[in-house]
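TA notes. Do not distribute before section.
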Amino acid sequence: MYMTALTNDQINAYNAAGGSTAANTDPAAAQERFLNLFVAQLQNQDPLNPMDNAQMTSQMAQINTVTGIQQLNETLKGMGTQFAALQAMQGASLVGREVLVAGNRLSFDDAGVGHGAFSLASSADSVTVDVMGKAGNLLGTLRLGAQAAGQQFFDWNANGIDPATVGTFRVTATSGQNAVAVTTLSPQRVEAVGMSDGAMTLRTSAGQTVGYDQVQAFM
């Protein structure tokens, strides 16, 4: 029985499947499978209608392209593994540092002063911070006056109030008669660093697990 030249679709399908029996998908194995198939094709071609040079060149070029793509994929996988390892090593240096993440809890120092932050979408004429207890009661109010757009920090002296009883804080900002959009931010200490699905995650003193891309600032 004579064989006709393989089509490009047949070559792609064969390489994608890894051959009918071979399980090895590395570039060398793929090239060997193709060459075996190519030799069988040459041995069984119609002597009255053989493949021309253009057909042979096209098929050889295609296997080289497939092999090159497989080698490139392996190289990229290796680079990805090395990058993840490097990122994990760099992440270890963050342990013990404070970061600013989205949240509404204060970070207290040894002197009993609570530290918080917020981000304003636009400048405000009046900014007020209310500190709430865990029971929902108002513990204190800070009137910060006019503030510019962007990140702003504030300190709240607990004045003898046990930090363990402090819950959250809320920020109200206005410009004239209009409310200004506010994002509350929480300073938190990094206690551990890990990797999840190839991305760095940080475990904070507040018990949160946040992605590296969620960090607003390092302090």
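Switch to the second chain here.
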Amino acid sequence: MKLDRRTVLSGTAAAIAAPFLASQPARADAKRQSLVDSCLATAQKILGGPDFPDAAKQMTTARGVLIMPELVQGGFIFGAAGGRGVLMGRNSPNNWSYPAFYGMGSGSIGLQVGGKVSEMVFIIRTEKGLQAILDHKFKFGAEAGVTLVAVGAGLEGASTAAGGADIVAFANSQGLFAGVSLEGSYIDADNDWNALYYGSGATAKAILSEQRFTNPGAEPIRQYLAKW
């Protein structure tokens, strides 16, 4: 059978392009892009809103930030909790890394009746705190030498309260601080989501420390954090 030369060339070009295209991230990946956009909205609310007067002060010297736009409690008083967010690190003044996806969970997070966990921003103040999260599955209250302070909406003097803490957590739900304990909760890189958003081989370290991956959908949140 005689093949048309254009058909052969077209097929050859497609075969060459296929592996390259397969390795590229889905730039219009709606699910992961929606989470990045939600993290931007949470950052704007907590870092730039009137309810958290000290959050922006903490950002001026921060090494990183973990943003959780929704952390959902499963039980009535005790129960499973979980959520997803992004971790970003400061590469240099006014230059932040692309976001790496992280999951947060707990087998038992204690809340008083009526309490609700929702948007949270963890400001990572030290290199030690950032590396503890990057190096392995991070468990609050179990990391030697890493301290965390949680403050509620409208709490004046959070900068003083934080003292020498490595990580300071801000949440928009005052009920969170009526009886919640973050101890026992954990955060871990979601490298399946990282690969879907950036491409094959995208891990949290490759995104934050090695700066090997980019995605134009994350530019708005990087530009917002560049204010600090």
